[in-house]
Request: fold
Amino acid sequence: MNRRGFLSLGALALAPHAFSAPRIQRLKIAATRQPLVGAGNPDTAVWAYNGAVPGPELRFKQGERLRVEVENALGAGTTVHWHGVRLPNAMDGVPNLTQAPIAPNGGKFVYEFDLPDAGTFWYHPHLGSPEQVARGLYGALIVEERNPPAMDRDVAWVLSDWRLDREARLVESFGNPMDASHAGRIGNTVTVNGAIRDTFAVRAGERIRLRLINASNARIYAPIFEGHSPRILALDGQPVANLNQRVVLGPGMRADLALDCTGAPGSRHRVIDDFYAQRAYEVLKLEYSADKPIRAAFEPLPQLAPNPLAAPDLAKAERHRIAFGGGMMGALPSQREHQGLFWTVNGRPISEHEHQGEPILSLRRGQSYRVELVNDTAWHHPIHLHGHVFRVLTADHWADAVLLDPRSRAEIAFVADNPGDWMLHCHVLEHQASGMMAVVRVS
Ligand code: C2O
Ligand code: CU
Reply:
């Protein structure tokens, strides 16, 4: 297809006139307190959207126009990034790259854009994120299909973890060099939708669409549903072929599961996460009511309709390679470490405040690209690209992030169809803030 063809295709996907009038939401960002740990324990001081962690679950229909009016009542600047959404660059919420920070003590900003893709997305700050996300700023953004599959319930679990002391106070050592140079800030308390949960109530025979969102700074989740075999309907909001495999979610990543409640009335089943060997824990228990099953047998699972993504032309794709380095057990000139920069992208660390430097890649709009992502470190890195959804060639599905195991590689491919300067970074927020970020320019 010629360049003009691509341009008109892109315009079609993002043109406002094809969409409805905006549905308006308001987000007020402020400090508050929340009972994270529960009965008999003190509340925890948190930062929240509209007074609760997670922030409100924003639900739209595919093709709708979102308008969110944000007010920042914090004493610190912030932004809102709409993770995984293909939106115009100016709405991407990256400070000093796509917008000025929303000023503290009453600053306002309006985000408004169309939602071309259905799926499970989320929102969070992109400024001082090791602190702001750890304090509780995140929420689910759910874009429903035009014809959603039949499910008895559609539920999001926003997974996060906290580093709390014995009085349930947040330990305020955000972005410290120890966390930044190792696995990031992994907490000691895991919450589901803003509280430690003992149970999740289900009924026998139910089919639940369970949307898992990893909103943690650094923790990786790999839940096992004992006695159940949920199938993966979508990864990062993008449909997959009902994969029957274990889901592994790096920070920022999402999975939509179809959970068929095949257990017996009155039974209990643990959801266990043993991603970190020696540190398995129970997330919660599925607790069946005594009611008789609502169905005797489950219909075959429907496939979700694909989103309107441009397929990369692999034969014509231009190839690039990006290597991630640094961290403990890596090599980095010590003078950079003194500035708190522990990680590199193609040999260079970039900090949050200097990403107006040269883009790591300059891509031509409409052209297909294949990018090899190489992890030269001893650590996990979920590498996330803004403004685009890519094909993970090494795993054969669409995504907006790919979790690189230590000393491993992945290959992604995409059409650079969204103009602007876009972040490419590790979603372990301490890694991002200490060098593991870069800019990809599409023009
Ligand atoms: Cu979830 Cu650059 O962000
Ligand atoms: Cu990382």
